[in-house]
Amino acid sequence: MLSLNQASEIVDAALGKARELGLRPLTVTVLDPGGHPIVVKREDDAGILRPQIAHAKAWGCLGTGHGGAAGARHATRDPAFFSALAAMSEGRVASSRGGVLVRDAEGALLGAVGVSGDRPENDETVAVAGVEKAGLVADAG
Amino acid sequence: MLSLNQASEIVDAALGKARELGLRPLTVTVLDPGGHPIVVKREDDAGILRPQIAHAKAWGCLGTGHGGAAGARHATRDPAFFSALAAMSEGRVASSRGGVLVRDAEGALLGAVGVSGDRPENDETVAVAGVEKAGLVADAG
Amino acid sequence: MLSLNQASEIVDAALGKARELGLRPLTVTVLDPGGHPIVVKREDDAGILRPQIAHAKAWGCLGTGHGGAAGARHATRDPAFFSALAAMSEGRVASSRGGVLVRDAEGALLGAVGVSGDRPENDETVAVAGVEKAGLVADAG
Amino acid sequence: MLSLNQASEIVDAALGKARELGLRPLTVTVLDPGGHPIVVKREDDAGILRPQIAHAKAWGCLGTGHGGAAGARHATRDPAFFSALAAMSEGRVASSRGGVLVRDAEGALLGAVGVSGDRPENDETVAVAGVEKAGLVADAG
């Protein structure tokens, strides 16, 4: 499982990448493998639902065992199942790019990262950059 | 943040516009930037869910940082994500015209207005009229 | 059932009384007999949960058919039933002073008023003053 | 409203104080005035509900406009109303020490801090230390 130090490093590196790219205000969340927050940071002027969206992107990855890009493809093919997932998880799942699983070099699951605030592909870029800066492996699906 | 006096002026001006246009019975809600009500008024003969719909139109704008017209376009393109938003916000988001962000002349966010009861474009007209009557800027998306 | 004009008069008169008495920032809500809002106003600097508290005081009166002072006495005698009421109403009931039923001269039920923000007895004083200013009868229990 | 930089400084100073005092693993949350997270950090080995408890301590302060110590005294005197608050806020309120309002030197409300994981008085000590380190005023009630 990710330590607080590792999770903080991921979040700060992700936000550093976002500022470098000039993205819109973001929220970045790192969850442990049980889906519980370790670190959340919301930038100034980000919308008030962004923490839940970032949480749901990361939680959705842990919920299904797939990165958010895989979830987004699945949701497009099977929207009814996706609606059922939203309901059965009580709103904890968003199957969107910007959610990635965090693994170590051997592939062991350490947690998940969710990013929300810009376009889904940009959110994903930032999530991956944060994880890699911490010397870990991002599984975006 | 909007004062009670400003929010009351927005609501009364919006309802005045609605009566001038002969619209159906409306509900108008003004929220602070955190999504909490300052003023709600529901006209005689309006449906009993209208307060929640007006609230969700305004809240959805604050949740994502976009006016309701932008939200409505997004929902049409990506209904699965829209369903997820509804679930993860516990029903607090309606991405529909009739929700507008309220800004000052410098663009600072002061709150949001939601209107429900007539066609979405008419609801939006009334919300914009109310905000402008109070000397503020309506961001409809 | 109360009209929007009557409900607005009650709220504005209640807030006028509160300012005259120098009370803390208040929220005042008027519900129709079905428990749905007609008017809500929250004064500057009032806490963000005050709209729900005012709503629950008014809704609780309608839920049981008794004014809030009767509800408060009941809750003191039977806290377990009160907890059950909170759960079964999904948080819509607060049995506290500051909630009053609104009746006409013949005793017919027209709606309910909830006030929150100061001490319960002061909230009730303001609710009663608002109803009486509108020429109606406040049933505080 | 607190910036992300200010909120980060509060959280890091609070956790620094906790390590200095040798407290149990903590979670620290900083909310904006609308009750939405800016920063959350959960230390290694903290329980999985701690983020919600810290959130509810901070949210409860914003909900009623009082610091957590005042809320805790109120809850002891009036447990039935406290149960109703929990229900009507859908579990967003914990009236406990460890929640403090954050104000500027003029008394304006900037947000709230919640700390959970050790004894309530220690949680409060840490919350106050974090706020003061950031040059702001902690209102513990």
Automatic annotation (TrEMBL), chains A, B, C, D:
Pfam families: HbpS-like. Signal peptide: none annotated. It comes from the Bacteria. InterPro entries: GlcG_carb_metab_protein, PduO/GlcC-like, PduO/GlcC-like_sf. PANTHER family: SLR1406 PROTEIN. This is Uncharacterized conserved protein GlcG, DUF336 family. It comes from Amycolatopsis saalfeldensis.
